Amino acid sequence: MFRDENMLILLVATALGPMASAGATKIDGKPTVDEAQVLAYGGILNSFVPGVLPNDTDIQQVAQFALQYATEHVPHLVPRAGEGAEGGDFLKPEILQPRKLKLHFTQNGQNPALYELVYEQNGEKLTETHIIILGITYFLTLSWPSIANSLVHRFVVTMFSGHLYVFEHTWFQVASQTDEGTVLPCASKYLQDVQEDAMSSTRTQNVESLTLGDNKHSVQYSSSQVCQQTSQEKQECGSQEKAKSATTTKKPYLQTDNDLSAGLKIASYNVWNFNGGPEGRVKAYVERAQHLGQVLADCAADIIALQEVRFAYNRGGPLGPNQIQHFTHYLPGYQYVFQPAMSYPESILGRVEEGVAIISKFPIITHDYILLYRNASDSEDFHQRICLHAEIETPYLGLVHLFVTHLSLSEPAQDKSVVQIWEFMQRFSGPAVLMGDLNTEPGSKAIRFLQGVEEIDRVKTEELQDAWLMKYPEPRADRDGTYWRNEIRDSGLTFNALKSHLEKRIDYMFVRLPSDVRLHNISLLDDGKRGYAAASDHVGLMGTFTFSQGKDQGS
Protein backbone atom coordinates (compact mmCIF):
# COMPACT_ATOMS: atom_id res chain seq x y z
CA MET A 1 0.00 0.00 0.00
CA PHE A 2 1.34 3.46 -0.87
CA ARG A 3 0.16 7.05 -1.04
CA ASP A 4 0.33 9.25 -4.12
CA GLU A 5 -1.02 12.72 -3.43
CA ASN A 6 -4.76 12.20 -2.99
CA MET A 7 -4.79 8.52 -3.92
CA LEU A 8 -4.54 5.53 -1.61
CA ILE A 9 -3.78 2.43 -3.65
CA LEU A 10 -4.18 -1.15 -2.45
CA LEU A 11 -3.04 -4.04 -4.63
CA VAL A 12 -5.12 -7.19 -4.28
CA ALA A 13 -4.30 -10.25 -6.37
CA THR A 14 -7.36 -12.16 -7.50
CA ALA A 15 -7.18 -15.88 -6.67
CA LEU A 16 -8.47 -17.95 -9.56
CA GLY A 17 -7.85 -21.47 -8.29
CA PRO A 18 -5.09 -24.04 -8.79
CA MET A 19 -2.82 -24.12 -11.81
CA ALA A 20 -3.84 -26.54 -14.53
CA SER A 21 -1.48 -28.91 -16.26
CA ALA A 22 -0.41 -28.23 -19.83
CA GLY A 23 1.55 -29.77 -22.65
CA ALA A 24 2.18 -27.25 -25.42
CA THR A 25 5.07 -27.39 -27.85
CA LYS A 26 7.03 -24.44 -29.25
CA ILE A 27 9.35 -24.46 -32.25
CA ASP A 28 12.14 -21.86 -32.22
CA GLY A 29 10.10 -19.98 -29.66
CA LYS A 30 7.03 -20.05 -31.91
CA PRO A 31 3.94 -21.75 -30.46
CA THR A 32 2.58 -24.59 -32.56
CA VAL A 33 -0.83 -24.38 -30.90
CA ASP A 34 -3.43 -21.67 -30.35
CA GLU A 35 -1.63 -19.00 -28.35
CA ALA A 36 -4.79 -17.91 -26.56
CA GLN A 37 -5.52 -21.38 -25.17
CA VAL A 38 -2.26 -22.56 -23.62
CA LEU A 39 0.56 -21.59 -21.33
CA ALA A 40 3.85 -20.21 -22.56
CA TYR A 41 5.28 -21.78 -19.39
CA GLY A 42 4.18 -22.28 -15.80
CA GLY A 43 2.25 -19.24 -14.60
CA ILE A 44 2.48 -17.32 -17.89
CA LEU A 45 -0.11 -17.32 -20.67
CA ASN A 46 0.74 -17.32 -24.38
CA SER A 47 -0.32 -13.70 -24.76
CA PHE A 48 1.49 -12.72 -27.94
CA VAL A 49 0.72 -9.22 -29.20
CA PRO A 50 -0.72 -9.24 -32.74
CA GLY A 51 0.53 -6.99 -35.53
CA VAL A 52 4.06 -6.38 -34.26
CA LEU A 53 6.21 -4.62 -36.89
CA PRO A 54 9.96 -4.00 -37.21
CA ASN A 55 9.49 -0.23 -37.14
CA ASP A 56 7.52 -0.22 -33.87
CA THR A 57 9.26 2.05 -31.39
CA ASP A 58 9.85 -0.60 -28.74
CA ILE A 59 11.05 -3.14 -31.33
CA GLN A 60 13.57 -0.60 -32.61
CA GLN A 61 14.81 0.00 -29.07
CA VAL A 62 15.12 -3.71 -28.31
CA ALA A 63 16.92 -4.30 -31.63
CA GLN A 64 19.34 -1.49 -30.79
CA PHE A 65 19.99 -3.07 -27.40
CA ALA A 66 20.50 -6.48 -29.06
CA LEU A 67 22.95 -5.01 -31.58
CA GLN A 68 24.81 -3.31 -28.75
CA TYR A 69 25.01 -6.63 -26.91
CA ALA A 70 26.29 -8.46 -30.01
CA THR A 71 28.93 -5.86 -30.81
CA GLU A 72 30.23 -6.02 -27.26
CA HIS A 73 30.31 -9.81 -26.92
CA VAL A 74 31.10 -11.00 -30.47
CA PRO A 75 32.24 -7.90 -32.40
CA HIS A 76 34.04 -10.02 -35.01
CA LEU A 77 30.71 -11.60 -35.98
CA VAL A 78 28.89 -8.32 -36.70
CA PRO A 79 29.39 -6.62 -40.12
CA ARG A 80 31.14 -3.25 -40.24
CA ALA A 81 31.38 -0.46 -42.77
CA GLY A 82 34.57 -0.75 -44.82
CA GLU A 83 36.69 -3.80 -45.41
CA GLY A 84 37.80 -6.36 -42.85
CA ALA A 85 36.72 -7.16 -39.31
CA GLU A 86 38.42 -4.01 -38.02
CA GLY A 87 36.62 -1.62 -40.34
CA GLY A 88 34.39 1.29 -39.41
CA ASP A 89 31.16 1.50 -37.47
CA PHE A 90 28.91 -1.51 -37.13
CA LEU A 91 26.28 -1.73 -39.84
CA LYS A 92 22.61 -1.40 -38.99
CA PRO A 93 20.79 -4.73 -39.39
CA GLU A 94 17.38 -5.58 -40.73
CA ILE A 95 14.91 -6.73 -38.08
CA LEU A 96 13.17 -9.97 -38.98
CA GLN A 97 10.17 -11.73 -37.42
CA PRO A 98 9.73 -9.49 -34.36
CA ARG A 99 7.29 -10.84 -31.79
CA LYS A 100 6.24 -9.68 -28.37
CA LEU A 101 4.92 -11.78 -25.49
CA LYS A 102 3.18 -9.94 -22.67
CA LEU A 103 3.81 -11.91 -19.50
CA HIS A 104 0.25 -12.30 -18.28
CA PHE A 105 0.41 -14.10 -14.95
CA THR A 106 -2.15 -16.88 -14.43
CA GLN A 107 -3.13 -18.96 -11.43
CA ASN A 108 -5.39 -21.44 -13.19
CA GLY A 109 -3.54 -21.91 -16.47
CA GLN A 110 -6.40 -20.44 -18.48
CA ASN A 111 -7.22 -16.89 -17.41
CA PRO A 112 -5.00 -13.94 -16.48
CA ALA A 113 -4.79 -13.14 -12.79
CA LEU A 114 -6.09 -9.73 -11.78
CA TYR A 115 -5.33 -7.12 -9.17
CA GLU A 116 -7.44 -4.27 -7.86
CA LEU A 117 -6.40 -0.69 -7.29
CA VAL A 118 -8.47 0.69 -4.44
CA TYR A 119 -7.94 4.38 -3.85
CA GLU A 120 -9.56 7.52 -2.54
CA GLN A 121 -9.85 10.62 -4.66
CA ASN A 122 -11.58 13.77 -3.51
CA GLY A 123 -13.20 11.84 -0.69
CA GLU A 124 -14.60 9.16 -3.01
CA LYS A 125 -13.48 5.51 -2.92
CA LEU A 126 -12.69 4.15 -6.38
CA THR A 127 -11.69 0.69 -7.61
CA GLU A 128 -9.88 -0.32 -10.79
CA THR A 129 -9.18 -3.87 -11.95
CA HIS A 130 -6.06 -4.67 -13.95
CA ILE A 131 -4.38 -7.73 -15.45
CA ILE A 132 -1.12 -8.71 -13.75
CA ILE A 133 1.68 -8.29 -16.31
CA LEU A 134 5.13 -9.27 -15.06
CA GLY A 135 7.02 -7.90 -18.05
CA ILE A 136 7.40 -8.27 -21.80
CA THR A 137 9.59 -10.73 -23.70
CA TYR A 138 10.72 -9.89 -27.24
CA PHE A 139 11.78 -12.30 -29.99
CA LEU A 140 13.67 -11.00 -33.02
CA THR A 141 16.37 -11.75 -35.57
CA LEU A 142 19.06 -9.34 -36.78
CA SER A 143 20.16 -9.88 -40.37
CA TRP A 144 22.47 -8.25 -42.93
CA PRO A 145 21.18 -9.78 -46.21
CA SER A 146 23.27 -7.47 -48.41
CA ILE A 147 26.51 -8.69 -46.80
CA ALA A 148 27.85 -11.92 -48.29
CA ASN A 149 28.35 -14.78 -45.82
CA SER A 150 27.16 -12.72 -42.87
CA LEU A 151 25.53 -14.34 -39.87
CA VAL A 152 22.02 -13.91 -38.54
CA HIS A 153 21.74 -13.25 -34.82
CA ARG A 154 18.67 -14.42 -32.93
CA PHE A 155 17.72 -12.81 -29.65
CA VAL A 156 15.19 -13.26 -26.90
CA VAL A 157 15.20 -10.15 -24.74
CA THR A 158 12.98 -9.70 -21.72
CA MET A 159 11.98 -6.43 -20.10
CA PHE A 160 11.41 -6.01 -16.38
CA SER A 161 11.11 -2.77 -14.45
CA GLY A 162 12.37 -0.67 -17.36
CA HIS A 163 15.48 -2.77 -18.00
CA LEU A 164 16.30 -5.27 -20.75
CA TYR A 165 17.95 -8.66 -20.21
CA VAL A 166 19.11 -11.26 -22.73
CA PHE A 167 17.61 -14.75 -22.47
CA GLU A 168 18.93 -15.95 -25.83
CA HIS A 169 21.72 -15.00 -28.19
CA THR A 170 22.40 -17.45 -31.00
CA TRP A 171 23.89 -17.00 -34.44
CA PHE A 172 24.61 -19.03 -37.55
CA GLN A 173 25.41 -18.62 -41.22
CA VAL A 174 22.70 -19.07 -43.81
CA ALA A 175 23.13 -20.75 -47.15
CA SER A 176 21.77 -17.84 -49.15
CA GLN A 177 20.02 -14.52 -48.78
CA THR A 178 16.73 -16.15 -49.69
CA ASP A 179 16.93 -19.18 -47.41
CA GLU A 180 17.29 -18.21 -43.76
CA GLY A 181 16.40 -21.66 -42.54
CA THR A 182 19.40 -23.43 -44.02
CA VAL A 183 22.75 -23.39 -42.31
CA LEU A 184 25.93 -23.78 -44.31
CA PRO A 185 27.40 -27.31 -44.07
CA CYS A 186 29.80 -28.39 -41.37
CA ALA A 187 32.79 -27.67 -43.60
CA SER A 188 31.91 -23.96 -43.92
CA LYS A 189 34.65 -21.46 -43.14
CA TYR A 190 32.72 -20.10 -40.16
CA LEU A 191 32.46 -23.48 -38.46
CA GLN A 192 36.09 -24.23 -39.27
CA ASP A 193 37.06 -20.95 -37.60
CA VAL A 194 35.01 -21.86 -34.55
CA GLN A 195 36.64 -25.29 -34.40
CA GLU A 196 40.16 -23.87 -34.72
CA ASP A 197 39.44 -21.35 -31.98
CA ALA A 198 38.01 -24.12 -29.79
CA MET A 199 41.13 -26.23 -30.19
CA SER A 200 43.62 -23.40 -29.58
CA SER A 201 42.04 -21.07 -27.04
CA THR A 202 42.05 -21.60 -23.29
CA ARG A 203 40.93 -18.07 -22.44
CA THR A 204 38.57 -17.74 -19.51
CA GLN A 205 37.17 -14.79 -17.64
CA ASN A 206 38.95 -13.45 -14.58
CA VAL A 207 36.96 -14.40 -11.47
CA GLU A 208 37.35 -10.97 -9.93
CA SER A 209 35.80 -9.31 -12.97
CA LEU A 210 32.38 -10.78 -12.17
CA THR A 211 31.42 -8.01 -9.77
CA LEU A 212 29.60 -5.89 -12.31
CA GLY A 213 26.72 -3.70 -11.27
CA ASP A 214 23.20 -4.20 -12.53
CA ASN A 215 23.72 -1.57 -15.22
CA LYS A 216 26.36 -3.81 -16.76
CA HIS A 217 23.76 -6.51 -17.42
CA SER A 218 21.06 -4.25 -18.79
CA VAL A 219 20.38 -0.82 -20.18
CA GLN A 220 17.51 1.52 -19.49
CA TYR A 221 14.62 0.80 -21.82
CA SER A 222 14.83 4.31 -23.26
CA SER A 223 18.55 4.06 -24.05
CA SER A 224 19.57 5.53 -27.40
CA GLN A 225 23.29 4.85 -27.24
CA VAL A 226 25.10 3.50 -30.30
CA CYS A 227 28.21 1.30 -30.35
CA GLN A 228 31.20 2.74 -32.17
CA GLN A 229 34.86 1.92 -32.64
CA THR A 230 37.04 3.99 -30.28
CA SER A 231 40.43 5.41 -31.20
CA GLN A 232 42.09 2.72 -29.08
CA GLU A 233 40.32 -0.01 -31.11
CA LYS A 234 38.43 -1.02 -27.94
CA GLN A 235 34.73 -1.77 -28.07
CA GLU A 236 32.54 0.22 -25.72
CA CYS A 237 28.75 0.21 -25.74
CA GLY A 238 27.30 3.03 -23.68
CA SER A 239 28.36 2.43 -20.11
CA GLN A 240 29.25 -1.19 -20.84
CA GLU A 241 32.88 -2.28 -21.29
CA LYS A 242 34.39 -5.56 -22.32
CA ALA A 243 35.12 -7.65 -19.25
CA LYS A 244 38.76 -8.24 -18.42
CA SER A 245 40.05 -11.60 -19.49
CA ALA A 246 43.04 -13.69 -18.60
CA THR A 247 44.57 -16.98 -19.61
CA THR A 248 44.27 -19.46 -16.78
CA THR A 249 45.59 -22.94 -16.17
CA LYS A 250 42.92 -25.62 -16.40
CA LYS A 251 42.10 -27.20 -13.08
CA PRO A 252 41.61 -30.99 -12.77
CA TYR A 253 37.86 -30.86 -12.13
CA LEU A 254 37.35 -34.04 -14.11
CA GLN A 255 37.91 -37.08 -11.91
CA THR A 256 39.06 -39.34 -14.73
CA ASP A 257 40.66 -39.16 -18.16
CA ASN A 258 42.29 -35.74 -18.16
CA ASP A 259 43.20 -36.00 -21.86
CA LEU A 260 39.90 -35.02 -23.47
CA SER A 261 41.19 -32.70 -26.17
CA ALA A 262 39.60 -34.70 -29.01
CA GLY A 263 35.93 -35.14 -29.71
CA LEU A 264 32.81 -33.32 -28.61
CA LYS A 265 32.57 -32.55 -24.89
CA ILE A 266 29.11 -32.13 -23.37
CA ALA A 267 28.46 -31.23 -19.73
CA SER A 268 25.41 -30.99 -17.48
CA TYR A 269 25.12 -29.11 -14.18
CA ASN A 270 22.36 -28.20 -11.73
CA VAL A 271 23.43 -24.70 -10.62
CA TRP A 272 21.22 -24.53 -7.46
CA ASN A 273 19.62 -21.22 -8.53
CA PHE A 274 20.49 -18.24 -6.26
CA ASN A 275 21.20 -20.20 -3.12
CA GLY A 276 24.24 -19.44 -0.99
CA GLY A 277 25.43 -19.76 2.58
CA PRO A 278 23.09 -19.52 5.58
CA GLU A 279 24.25 -15.98 6.37
CA GLY A 280 25.02 -13.12 4.05
CA ARG A 281 23.07 -14.90 1.35
CA VAL A 282 23.64 -12.45 -1.52
CA LYS A 283 27.35 -12.18 -0.79
CA ALA A 284 27.59 -15.97 -0.52
CA TYR A 285 25.81 -16.40 -3.84
CA VAL A 286 28.11 -13.93 -5.61
CA GLU A 287 31.14 -15.86 -4.37
CA ARG A 288 29.57 -19.18 -5.38
CA ALA A 289 28.63 -17.85 -8.83
CA GLN A 290 32.22 -16.77 -9.39
CA HIS A 291 33.47 -20.19 -8.36
CA LEU A 292 30.90 -22.09 -10.43
CA GLY A 293 31.54 -19.88 -13.45
CA GLN A 294 35.23 -20.72 -13.23
CA VAL A 295 34.44 -24.44 -12.93
CA LEU A 296 32.34 -24.25 -16.11
CA ALA A 297 35.08 -22.36 -17.94
CA ASP A 298 37.87 -24.66 -16.81
CA CYS A 299 36.08 -27.84 -17.88
CA ALA A 300 36.30 -26.55 -21.48
CA ALA A 301 33.05 -28.23 -22.54
CA ASP A 302 31.76 -27.54 -26.03
CA ILE A 303 28.13 -27.68 -24.88
CA ILE A 304 26.76 -27.19 -21.36
CA ALA A 305 23.23 -27.90 -20.14
CA LEU A 306 22.16 -26.13 -16.96
CA GLN A 307 19.24 -26.71 -14.62
CA GLU A 308 17.72 -24.49 -11.90
CA VAL A 309 18.64 -21.31 -13.75
CA ARG A 310 16.69 -18.30 -12.51
CA PHE A 311 15.68 -14.77 -13.27
CA ALA A 312 14.92 -13.22 -9.88
CA TYR A 313 14.29 -9.51 -9.47
CA ASN A 314 15.37 -9.43 -5.81
CA ARG A 315 18.42 -11.71 -5.94
CA GLY A 316 21.91 -11.69 -7.39
CA GLY A 317 23.05 -8.50 -5.71
CA PRO A 318 25.66 -6.70 -7.85
CA LEU A 319 25.45 -9.42 -10.51
CA GLY A 320 21.86 -8.57 -11.37
CA PRO A 321 18.75 -10.78 -11.68
CA ASN A 322 19.57 -12.65 -14.92
CA GLN A 323 21.47 -15.73 -13.77
CA ILE A 324 22.30 -17.15 -17.20
CA GLN A 325 24.57 -14.16 -17.83
CA HIS A 326 26.42 -14.82 -14.57
CA PHE A 327 27.78 -17.97 -16.22
CA THR A 328 28.05 -16.96 -19.89
CA HIS A 329 30.30 -14.17 -18.62
CA TYR A 330 32.92 -16.89 -18.13
CA LEU A 331 32.32 -18.43 -21.57
CA PRO A 332 33.03 -15.66 -24.10
CA GLY A 333 31.93 -16.45 -27.62
CA TYR A 334 29.42 -19.12 -26.56
CA GLN A 335 25.82 -19.04 -27.72
CA TYR A 336 23.04 -19.65 -25.23
CA VAL A 337 19.33 -20.20 -24.75
CA PHE A 338 17.56 -19.82 -21.40
CA GLN A 339 13.97 -21.04 -21.25
CA PRO A 340 11.90 -20.39 -18.12
CA ALA A 341 9.71 -23.29 -17.00
CA MET A 342 7.90 -21.63 -14.10
CA SER A 343 6.97 -18.17 -12.92
CA TYR A 344 6.50 -18.34 -9.18
CA PRO A 345 3.16 -17.20 -7.69
CA GLU A 346 4.85 -15.17 -4.95
CA SER A 347 6.39 -12.99 -7.64
CA ILE A 348 3.24 -11.21 -8.84
CA LEU A 349 4.59 -7.89 -7.62
CA GLY A 350 8.08 -8.72 -8.82
CA ARG A 351 9.38 -11.47 -11.08
CA VAL A 352 10.96 -14.82 -10.21
CA GLU A 353 11.30 -17.49 -12.91
CA GLU A 354 13.22 -20.76 -13.07
CA GLY A 355 14.10 -22.96 -16.01
CA VAL A 356 16.85 -24.68 -17.96
CA ALA A 357 19.50 -23.48 -20.38
CA ILE A 358 21.86 -24.67 -23.11
CA ILE A 359 25.21 -22.96 -23.73
CA SER A 360 27.15 -23.91 -26.86
CA LYS A 361 30.46 -23.13 -28.52
CA PHE A 362 28.88 -24.20 -31.81
CA PRO A 363 25.83 -22.84 -33.68
CA ILE A 364 22.42 -23.50 -32.13
CA ILE A 365 20.40 -23.85 -35.32
CA THR A 366 16.94 -24.40 -33.84
CA HIS A 367 15.45 -24.93 -30.43
CA ASP A 368 12.05 -25.79 -29.00
CA TYR A 369 10.54 -27.20 -25.82
CA ILE A 370 7.58 -29.03 -24.37
CA LEU A 371 5.70 -28.51 -21.14
CA LEU A 372 5.77 -31.72 -19.13
CA TYR A 373 2.92 -33.33 -17.23
CA ARG A 374 1.92 -31.62 -14.01
CA ASN A 375 -0.63 -32.37 -11.32
CA ALA A 376 -1.03 -29.21 -9.26
CA SER A 377 -2.96 -31.11 -6.56
CA ASP A 378 0.22 -33.09 -5.81
CA SER A 379 2.32 -31.23 -3.23
CA GLU A 380 5.49 -32.64 -4.83
CA ASP A 381 4.48 -31.39 -8.27
CA PHE A 382 4.11 -27.68 -7.57
CA HIS A 383 6.49 -26.47 -10.29
CA GLN A 384 5.89 -26.66 -14.03
CA ARG A 385 8.67 -28.64 -15.73
CA ILE A 386 9.87 -28.55 -19.33
CA CYS A 387 12.19 -30.37 -21.71
CA LEU A 388 14.30 -27.99 -23.81
CA HIS A 389 15.67 -29.24 -27.13
CA ALA A 390 18.35 -27.67 -29.31
CA GLU A 391 19.76 -28.73 -32.66
CA ILE A 392 23.48 -27.88 -32.71
CA GLU A 393 25.81 -27.95 -35.70
CA THR A 394 29.15 -29.41 -34.58
CA PRO A 395 32.39 -29.91 -36.53
CA TYR A 396 32.77 -33.39 -35.03
CA LEU A 397 29.43 -35.12 -35.38
CA GLY A 398 27.41 -32.79 -37.60
CA LEU A 399 23.92 -32.05 -36.27
CA VAL A 400 23.46 -33.17 -32.66
CA HIS A 401 20.20 -33.00 -30.71
CA LEU A 402 20.50 -31.87 -27.10
CA PHE A 403 17.66 -32.36 -24.60
CA VAL A 404 17.81 -30.95 -21.09
CA THR A 405 15.23 -31.31 -18.34
CA HIS A 406 14.72 -31.07 -14.58
CA LEU A 407 12.05 -33.52 -13.49
CA SER A 408 9.42 -33.18 -10.79
CA LEU A 409 9.82 -34.62 -7.31
CA SER A 410 6.53 -36.48 -7.87
CA GLU A 411 6.95 -40.10 -8.95
CA PRO A 412 3.71 -40.19 -11.01
CA ALA A 413 4.77 -36.98 -12.76
CA GLN A 414 8.23 -38.42 -13.44
CA ASP A 415 6.72 -41.52 -15.02
CA LYS A 416 4.48 -39.52 -17.34
CA SER A 417 7.22 -36.98 -18.12
CA VAL A 418 9.81 -39.51 -19.29
CA VAL A 419 7.30 -40.94 -21.76
CA GLN A 420 6.63 -37.42 -23.06
CA ILE A 421 10.36 -36.78 -23.38
CA TRP A 422 10.98 -40.05 -25.22
CA GLU A 423 8.17 -39.32 -27.67
CA PHE A 424 9.60 -35.81 -28.11
CA MET A 425 13.04 -37.25 -28.87
CA GLN A 426 11.55 -39.60 -31.45
CA ARG A 427 10.68 -36.64 -33.66
CA PHE A 428 14.36 -36.02 -34.39
CA SER A 429 16.81 -38.41 -36.05
CA GLY A 430 20.55 -38.50 -35.55
CA PRO A 431 22.80 -38.33 -32.47
CA ALA A 432 20.91 -37.28 -29.35
CA VAL A 433 21.84 -36.61 -25.73
CA LEU A 434 19.31 -36.26 -22.90
CA MET A 435 20.62 -34.90 -19.62
CA GLY A 436 19.68 -33.19 -16.42
CA ASP A 437 18.62 -33.53 -12.83
CA LEU A 438 15.93 -36.22 -12.94
CA ASN A 439 15.25 -36.11 -9.18
CA THR A 440 15.06 -39.90 -8.93
CA GLU A 441 17.51 -42.72 -8.26
CA PRO A 442 18.43 -45.79 -10.31
CA GLY A 443 15.84 -48.50 -9.86
CA SER A 444 12.89 -46.13 -10.15
CA LYS A 445 10.37 -46.80 -12.89
CA ALA A 446 11.30 -43.58 -14.71
CA ILE A 447 15.01 -44.47 -14.90
CA ARG A 448 14.35 -48.09 -15.81
CA PHE A 449 12.11 -46.81 -18.61
CA LEU A 450 14.85 -44.56 -19.99
CA GLN A 451 17.31 -47.45 -19.73
CA GLY A 452 14.96 -49.55 -21.86
CA VAL A 453 14.36 -52.06 -19.05
CA GLU A 454 10.74 -51.30 -18.21
CA GLU A 455 7.65 -50.18 -20.11
CA ILE A 456 5.35 -47.34 -19.07
CA ASP A 457 1.87 -47.25 -20.58
CA ARG A 458 3.00 -49.87 -23.12
CA VAL A 459 5.78 -47.59 -24.36
CA LYS A 460 9.42 -48.70 -24.31
CA THR A 461 12.59 -46.86 -25.29
CA GLU A 462 14.97 -48.25 -27.90
CA GLU A 463 18.66 -47.53 -28.49
CA LEU A 464 18.78 -45.09 -25.56
CA GLN A 465 21.65 -45.83 -23.17
CA ASP A 466 22.60 -44.66 -19.69
CA ALA A 467 26.00 -43.09 -20.39
CA TRP A 468 27.41 -43.74 -16.91
CA LEU A 469 26.61 -47.45 -17.11
CA MET A 470 28.26 -47.65 -20.53
CA LYS A 471 31.61 -47.04 -18.79
CA TYR A 472 31.21 -47.79 -15.08
CA PRO A 473 29.13 -49.93 -12.70
CA GLU A 474 26.17 -48.51 -10.85
CA PRO A 475 27.45 -46.66 -7.75
CA ARG A 476 26.07 -47.69 -4.37
CA ALA A 477 23.94 -45.03 -2.73
CA ASP A 478 25.13 -43.81 0.68
CA ARG A 479 22.57 -45.47 2.93
CA ASP A 480 22.94 -46.80 6.46
CA GLY A 481 25.25 -49.80 6.51
CA THR A 482 26.54 -49.38 2.96
CA TYR A 483 29.81 -47.61 3.72
CA TRP A 484 32.15 -47.29 6.68
CA ARG A 485 32.17 -43.76 8.06
CA ASN A 486 35.22 -42.52 6.14
CA GLU A 487 35.14 -45.04 3.32
CA ILE A 488 35.51 -43.54 -0.15
CA ARG A 489 32.12 -43.46 -1.85
CA ASP A 490 31.63 -45.03 -5.26
CA SER A 491 32.26 -42.73 -8.20
CA GLY A 492 29.09 -41.66 -9.97
CA LEU A 493 27.05 -40.23 -7.10
CA THR A 494 25.97 -36.66 -7.88
CA PHE A 495 24.08 -35.34 -4.83
CA ASN A 496 24.33 -33.83 -2.10
CA ALA A 497 27.56 -31.81 -2.26
CA LEU A 498 26.47 -29.78 0.78
CA LYS A 499 27.19 -32.82 2.95
CA SER A 500 30.56 -34.40 3.68
CA HIS A 501 29.88 -37.27 1.24
CA LEU A 502 27.79 -37.54 -1.92
CA GLU A 503 24.76 -39.74 -1.28
CA LYS A 504 22.95 -40.70 -4.48
CA ARG A 505 22.86 -40.56 -8.26
CA ILE A 506 20.04 -38.36 -9.55
CA ASP A 507 21.81 -36.55 -12.43
CA TYR A 508 22.01 -38.46 -15.70
CA MET A 509 23.12 -38.44 -19.30
CA PHE A 510 21.32 -40.72 -21.76
CA VAL A 511 22.60 -41.09 -25.31
CA ARG A 512 21.31 -42.29 -28.65
CA LEU A 513 24.30 -42.73 -30.93
CA PRO A 514 24.72 -43.91 -34.52
CA SER A 515 27.15 -46.73 -35.18
CA ASP A 516 30.02 -44.43 -36.17
CA VAL A 517 29.92 -42.37 -32.96
CA ARG A 518 30.98 -43.61 -29.56
CA LEU A 519 31.06 -42.37 -26.00
CA HIS A 520 34.77 -41.96 -25.27
CA ASN A 521 34.27 -41.32 -21.58
CA ILE A 522 31.97 -39.87 -18.95
CA SER A 523 33.22 -38.23 -15.77
CA LEU A 524 31.99 -36.28 -12.78
CA LEU A 525 32.47 -32.55 -13.03
CA ASP A 526 33.39 -32.05 -9.38
CA ASP A 527 35.35 -29.23 -7.73
CA GLY A 528 36.06 -31.51 -4.75
CA LYS A 529 34.56 -29.04 -2.27
CA ARG A 530 31.76 -29.89 0.14
CA GLY A 531 29.39 -27.83 2.22
CA TYR A 532 28.72 -24.21 1.29
CA ALA A 533 32.16 -23.98 -0.34
CA ALA A 534 30.94 -26.27 -3.14
CA ALA A 535 30.02 -24.84 -6.53
CA SER A 536 26.50 -26.30 -6.20
CA ASP A 537 24.56 -28.87 -4.19
CA HIS A 538 24.99 -31.19 -7.20
CA VAL A 539 28.13 -32.19 -9.05
CA GLY A 540 28.05 -32.14 -12.82
CA LEU A 541 28.60 -34.69 -15.56
CA MET A 542 30.92 -34.50 -18.57
CA GLY A 543 30.66 -36.81 -21.58
CA THR A 544 33.11 -36.91 -24.49
CA PHE A 545 32.01 -38.23 -27.88
CA THR A 546 34.31 -39.30 -30.71
CA PHE A 547 34.18 -40.97 -34.09
CA SER A 548 34.61 -44.71 -34.17
CA GLN A 549 37.62 -46.24 -35.91
CA GLY A 550 37.34 -45.85 -39.65
CA LYS A 551 35.23 -42.70 -39.55
CA ASP A 552 36.61 -40.02 -41.88
CA GLN A 553 36.86 -36.98 -39.63
CA GLY A 554 37.41 -34.70 -42.56
CA SER A 555 34.20 -35.64 -44.30
UniProtKB/TrEMBL annotation:
The answer to whether UniProt assigns keyword Signal to this entry is yes
Which positions fall inside the Endonuclease/exonuclease/phosphatase domain?
Answer: 267-538
Molecular function per GO: catalytic activity
Q: Which GO terms describe its biological process?
A: GPI anchor biosynthetic process
Q: Which GO terms describe its cellular component?
A: endoplasmic reticulum; membrane
InterPro entries xref list = Endo/exonu/phosph_ase_sf, Endo/exonuclease/phosphatase, GPI-anchor_lipid_remodeler
Q: Name one Pfam family in it.
A: Exo_endo_phos
Q: Which UniProt keywords apply?
A: Signal
Instruction: Output the SUPFAM superfamilies linked to this UniProt entry.
Output: DNase I-like
> This protein is called what?
Uncharacterized protein LOC118414262
Name the gene behind this protein: LOC118414262
